[in-house]
Amino acid sequence: SHTVTTTSSSFTANLSASSSTLAYDREFLRTVPGLLMVTEIVLGLLVWTLIAGTEYFLYPAFGWVMFVAVFYWVLTVFFLIIYMTMTYTRIPQVPWTTVGLCFNGSAFILYLIAAIVDASSVTKELDSHNYNSWAASSFFAFVVTSCYAGNTYFSFISWQSRTLQ
């Protein structure tokens, strides 16, 4: 006769308990920082796709704009997921208000530089075939920059109220 014994580990019990309590914050998208973040994602995607559809690799300035746009687009999607799933409540060791301020502040500064580089690099003489895409990407880069400026402001207010307590 052959006997099989099955036991349940505490790891699987904890895993199933934690996955059933996955939080989802729908109200975050109704806040101004949430709306700004969604706008950053949509328009940031527009910035880098407008450039990616051209021969940007021939001009180093557009390579810098692509780097900034794609880098902060990926990180903004990552932070949106963190805020929507309320992961920040599960990792209290991370100073989330400081992280948010540093992220939004650096995104604002680097996007501002990228938008200026983008706008100053757009000329009809470079390549008239790509002119409209580069001009549009420049416009949207400034709009995304203003969104990151707004989120930097809200992050600063949140950080300041956190440090005063």
TrEMBL record:
GO biological process, one term: myelination
PROSITE patterns: MARVEL (PS51225)
Membrane topology: Multi-pass membrane protein
Superkingdom as given in the UniProt entry: Eukaryota
CC terms in the record's Gene Ontology section: membrane
Ranges for domain MARVEL: 28-160
One Pfam family here: MARVEL
Keyword check for Acyltransferase: no
Subcellular location: Membrane
Membrane-crossing residue ranges in chain numbering: 28-51, 57-82, 94-114, 134-156
Alphabetized UniProt keyword annotations: Membrane, Transmembrane, Transmembrane helix
Claim: Transmembrane is one of the keywords in the record: yes
Main subcellular location: membrane
A GO MF term: structural constituent of myelin sheath
Protein name, as recorded: CKLF8 protein
Record organism: Columbina picui (Picui ground-dove)
Gene: Cmtm8
